[in-house]
Amino acid sequence: MVTSPPEQPGQPAPHEQHAEPEQGAAVVSVSLDDAHRFSKPAAPRIRLLEGLGVEGDVHAGVTVQHRYHVKKDPTAPNLTQVHLIPAELFDELARGGYTVRPGELGENVTTTGIDLTALPRGTRLHLGASAVVELTGLRNPCSLINGYQGGLMKQLIDTDAAGRITRKAGVMSVVASGGAVEPGDTIRIELPEGDQVPLGVV
C-alpha cells in the first residue's frame, strides 16, 4: 500500500493536498452481501472499515476472502476488499444486448465519470466526506459470469489493437480510510507519487 508522510501541524493531510475533483465523478450505487453470491443487492448506504472492507460484506477482512484466493493461500493479504465498476460499462454491455444493473456483477461501488481501469496502481479515490479506497488491481472475470448471463464473459475480456488482453470487470481496492458511502457522493482522485504503474490482475 502507498504510505503517506507524517502530517505537519497546521497542514492538511496529504490526501487532502493532492486529491483532485473529477468533473462529474460520483457514486451511482452501493451494494453489499453477507454471503458468497454472484450479485450483491443494492443498499441505501455502506460503511467502509479501514483495512477491512465493507462492513457486513462477505469479502471484508484483513486476509483474502474470495473463495478462489482462499483455496490458494488463506493467509494472503486481502487486496480485494472493495470492488468498483463504472456504470459506463453497463451502457457498453447494453449495446451488445446485455442488461446489467448496479451490484449484479458483484461490485460494492458503482461509479460514473471515471475510467477506473486506466488509473495507476496506488490511486486513492475519495468517496464522499471521509472514505478513501486505494486501488490494488483489476478484477479478473471468472466463468461464473457466464452462468449469470451466457456469453457475458467474452464481453468483459477483450484484446486491443496491439494484441493485449483488456479486462473490463472493474477494479479492486483496499480501504485506506473508513467512512460512509452512498449514491450521489462525489469522487475525488489522488494519483500516487512517483512512477505510475498500470493496474495488474489481483
UniProtKB/TrEMBL annotation:
Residues 1-12 have a biased composition (Pro residues). Residues 41-190 form the MOSC domain. PROSITE patterns: MOSC (PS51340). GO terms for molecular function: catalytic activity; molybdenum ion binding; pyridoxal phosphate binding. It comes from the Bacteria. Residues 1-24 are annotated as: Disordered. It holds the Pfam family MOSC. SUPFAM superfamilies: PK beta-barrel domain-like (SSF50800). PANTHER family: METAL-SULFUR CLUSTER BIOSYNTHESIS PROTEINS YUAD-RELATED, MOSC DOMAIN-CONTAINING PROTEIN. This is MOSC domain-containing protein. It comes from Cryobacterium zhongshanensis.
